[in-house]
Input
Amino acid sequence: MLTNMLPTVTTAARILAVEEDPLLASELQAHLQQSGHRVTLCGSADGLLLAKRGNFDLILLTILGIDSLGVLQQLRRQSRVPVLLMSALDDEHNRIAGFSLGADDYLPKPFSIAELGVRVTAILRRVAYERQERPSPETDNELHFDETNSDVSLAGNQAGLTASEFRVLNLLAQHVNEVLSKPFLYQQALRRGYARHDRSLDMHISHIRRKLQAIGYRSSQLETVWGQGYMLVRPAL
Output
């Protein structure tokens, strides 16, 4: 079975939009309110203060320069509220800096309001999924999942997974012998939208395989299901 469906967003989300362009701010507010969300608008000068004081489900943050990334950095010290960055500075350095500081998605300007709406919905679906009560990884007599350190170990030997690699493997272990689609894994494990030419998930899978092999783990296999996604295969006992 292919797992691709995320929870439907049925409740109004509280969204803070930090945007200096009044025309764009008004346009995105109108679009998101038509979708049933409650939107608060502000400029960059008030963005951090409102983000800290308000109880928001999502923050849309425009990058105007290093100061905007500083706002994200300070916010991440206190809150895990999802942040979607919007920027006309569409270069690799800014994207990497944004994701490194904890952004959940990055949308280069100019963008269509329709695409913004789709990305907002995707993030809110991921958050809804994470808030659901989820099963622990299926019992494995050999592999130990350490949620605190975001790593797995075999007979005391740690694999040395990164946080992203751990989330990917942990999610696959919650759905043993079930194909998980790439869009699903991107949203739930990598915490951003899936792009057809983005190979980062493939690299994470490759690294996980290598690290599991290095500690001698052989009970389950990470398999590629071409055109669909990935699955953790555990033979029946």
